[in-house]
# Entry
Amino acid sequence: MTNITSLIVTIVPSILLIAGWVYSRKTEELKIINNQLSIKKYKVYENVISMFYKILGETLKGQKTDKQQNLDMMIEIKKDITLYGSDKVFYAFNKYLVVSANGVNNPQETLHPFFELIIAIREDLSGHKTKIKEKDILLNLMQDKKGAKEFSKKHKNVM
# Structure
């Protein structure tokens, strides 16, 4: 009986030690994979925002936008959103694309889906803790509180 007990006392800690090491190793591998995915996700989200602000800047300056370059950027962003974006970001991006592609007569109608996309991105990056609302993004774009308020009142169906 003591031989069995001493055998168990020797084997059980060894098994627990090996199981702990395997668990630790798998946990570390998951952390590395999640970190790599986060880096890719941040980059694609940055590209979405950068493209919008690039086009906005060119438009405000009266410059011609390079449609082929923008199309190439959009295709790359679509691929990356499909691979790395959260489900909510993916759906918000698709909604924005559909509204944008339908040749909306009123460009303001594309703002609501775009704002939803921005909020979905911020939620994904912040663990769903963003307090930013559409009106905040509008104010950031317009840089004019009075103008943003008037725009929101005038376009209630958009905002």
About this structure: The mean pLDDT is 85. DSSP finds six helices and no strands in the chain.
